[in-house]
Amino acid sequence: MKVKEIMERASITETGRALAYIKDGLEEINTIHETHVNVERIDITKDKRFYDLPNDMIKILSVRAKNHMNTKDEYRKIPRSIYEPIIEDADGV
Amino acid sequence: MATVKEYAYYIKGTKLALIEKDTAFDNDPNSRDYGPGAEYANWKSPIEAIADGIELEYVYSPEYSIERTNSSLTSITNWRSNGGYLQLKGGSVNYDTTLDVDNYFVLRNAGQHNGLHKIKEFSNVDGTNDGITTYTKVSGSSGWATDQQFQEVPKLYYHINVLNDEADEIDLPSYLSKALVYYVKARLAEDTMNLEAKEYFMKQFRKMVEKYDSTRYPGVRRIVSGFHAIR
Predict the structure, then answer these.
(1) Which of A38, A79, B54, B107 is the most buried (most CB within 10 A)?
(2) Neighbours of B128 (CB within 10 A)
(3) A13 in contact with B, Cβ within 8 Å
(4) Whether A60 contacts chain B with CB within 8 A
(5) pTM to 2 decimals?
(6) DSSP character for B97?
(7) Tens digits of residue pLDDT in B143-191
(8) Which residues contact B199 (CB under 8 A, 6 or more apart)?
(9) Do B122 and B95 form a contact (C-beta atoms < 8 A)?
């Protein structure tokens, strides 16, 4: 569907306002049902704890790590820690 | 042969914190690593560097569509902050021959800089017009620091259709586009403080998105009690 068709169906005449609401709506849809997915690989650096998340990310689907609980260089899903470890990291946030 | 590792993560601000279980105990008998609570003490920052160690699967908003994925530039290597704006360079390529000012491009494999960018200007860094300054705000060093090199080979897609015109096609399935109409109507109703209409349209919007979501999972959906539940 084109932007114009949505504007006609919603009876809106201002293009800028319509585009802003459509972009908000696209984000809202993707928080409920993922329509566009990307996979990014990041190098692990020794003693570096914090890694930047992509700027265009709306929702994390999965975090996998190489050789997690295996020796076959497989990427396996890693658990989310509820608590932060007691050993802090110097690189901070 | 690779060794078995055990990782976990947590989110702090806009960053992903990766921790690894260290199974190499030290030989200090007074160390807490021996006694109760040792399993908590052994989680620390990654103890070894691994190329492509983290694989992050995430959702992004289709505010643009890449029209041609077979035409991309792979020469970008570094980034820096140029007056608060993201500047890219690499390969001593004259980017002005392929791209134009005010054009959009999309970066992939570029870590935190993944996504849509708009070109502000070209500048000479190591050669002629081999630097691209964008309108994307960034905080970082203004020098070409080593920690601001891209870890992977970023792909710069430049045949992009950005959602900025009435004639643009929204990259969504037909049914979800209809749900989007309800969302826009809800926002318009909210602007006029017609909250009853806003709630109605939002309800319809969520219903349609959830119905669409259900169509992707065949069979019956049941909520069952867990294994350890009281029977």
Answers:
(1) B107
(2) 15
(3) no
(4) yes
(5) 0.83
(6) G
(7) 888 878 888 888 999 998 899 889 999 989 999 999 999 999 999 999 9
(8) B186
(9) yes
